[in-house]
Automatic annotation (TrEMBL):
Pfam families: DUF302. It comes from the Bacteria. This is DUF302 domain-containing protein. InterPro entries: DUF302, TT1751-like_sf. Residues 79-125 form the DUF302 domain.
């Protein structure tokens, strides 16, 4: 079966530069470490507890960072990172309501340097991705996830010299 869907794509120019924004973003997220998950074994209860404990203040977890800039040669190197981010509880509920929704989880955020000193972020709105499942519970959870992402981006884009200086 083939189905056409409408996706709302967001492209935003950030006030922070690439390094400051990515530093703040990573700092604000809980980090999923595969070795810690393996140590828990296959117990769903222990995994759920672990994921809850590693969530950042906004209950979002960083599942992975793809460093797409590493695919370019040194001469044409660009700063670009794709973040895979989610809220474990919301993700579990969404997938429980419709397994195919797992295709869109975790959510992907793409951050790149448009030109020196100017960063961009792009992502698809979760509510538009999950609208295709025509399920009010999934839509409610996707809007909650979307709001968490928007708040995370706002926090990470805060112009804070002090926070970034600890990295330099």
């Amino acid at each position: 079966m083939k189905k056409a869907i409408t996706i709302e794509h967001i492209q935003t120019e950030l006030t922070s530069n690439f390094d400051r924004f990515t530093f703040n973003l990573e700092k604000a997220l809980g980090v999923l470490t595969p070795s810690a998950l393996q140590a828990l074994g296959a117990s769903p209860a222990s995994m759920a507890s672990y994921l809850t404990n590693v969530s950042g203040e906004n209950n979002l977890v960083l599942f992975n960072i793809l460093l797409q800039g590493d695919l370019t040669d040194n001469q044409n190197k660009i700063n670009i990172k794709q973040y895979q981010i989610g809220n474990p509880k919301l993700m579990l509920r969404i997938i429980a309501n419709h397994a195919a929704a797992g295709l869109y989880l975790p959510v992907h955020l793409l951050v790149y340097e448009k030109y020196p000193g100017k960063a961009m972020i792009e992502y698809d709105l979760p509510s538009s991705l999950f609208a295709q499942f025509d399920n009010p519970e999934i839509l409610s959870d996707s809007v909650a996830l979307e709001n968490k992402l928007i708040e995370l981006i706002r926090i990470a884009d805060a112009d804070s010299e002090v926070e970034c200086q600890t990295r330099l």
